[in-house]
Sequence to fold (99 residues):
Amino acid sequence: MTGHPDRPLLRRLYGDAFALAYLGICAALTVWAFAASAGDNEDASLAGVIPVLATAPVSIAALALPGGPPAFVLAVAAGALVNAALIAWCSRRLRGGKR
Fold:
């Protein structure tokens, strides 16, 4: 990667405010989906769609993994991390590479 080789990789990938906000929103949506699906209402079955759509396209591809709730969390986390890295990259490029 070009830019700031002295900065650690995780900070370069996820150190942007927009990327961190996106990761926080994805985490909140996942927690909400689990809380909503724990209740006995008719909309509970669709609650898991929201975090998957928020972290698409990687999460949709990762949902092919078997395993129930752990695979769901893994798919959403993988999608969120990939998308957050892209958000940080775009943000850095739009600012002209400056912090």
Q: What stands out?
A: The first helix runs from residue 9 to 14.
